[in-house]
Amino acid sequence: MVNMTRLLNSHTESLEYARSTAFGIHDSLEQAARAANSWNQTLKVTSTILDYGLRLSCPIASLFLGNYGLPPSLIRNAALVLGGT
Questions:
Q1: Where are the domains of the chain?
Q2: What are the CA-CA distances from residue 85 to residues 10, 11, 25, 54, 81 (Å)?
Q3: 3-state class (DSSP) for residue 12
Q4: Taking the chain, what is the end-to-end CA distance rounded to the nearest angstrom?
Q5: Between 74-83 and 49-65, two packed helices, what is the crossing angle to 10 degrees?
Q6: What is the pLDDT of residues 9-52, one digit of tens each?
Q7: Which pTM value belongs to this model?
Q8: d(CA 16, CA 9)
Q9: Could you give the residue ranges of the DSSP H alpha helices within 1-85?
Q10: Rounded alpha-carbon distances, angstroms, from residue 5 to 1, 8, 55
Q11: Handedness of CA 52, 53, 56, 61 (dihedral sign)
């Protein structure tokens, strides 16, 4: 014979665990949304020529100076640009 009280308690514990996990995920998603909104607001602000210069020069510099910890290679970087990866 199954003890219904024990099953009910076990089910209640499982529901509480699921509830706390869902709230944890919800909090994490709220933090991620706030961070994304902050980045979105930062990128929308247009400031100076220096800002645009950095936005253009950093990706170009990473292509010429190397990426992913590999030594610089213009051929490999050109292949990455042309391949779209």
A1: 1-45, 46-85
A2: 50, 48, 32, 22, 7
A3: helix
A4: 62
A5: 110
A6: 999 999 999 999 999 999 999 999 998 888 777 777 666 777 77
A7: 0.45
A8: 11
A9: 4-44, 49-65, 74-83
A10: 12, 5, 63
A11: negative
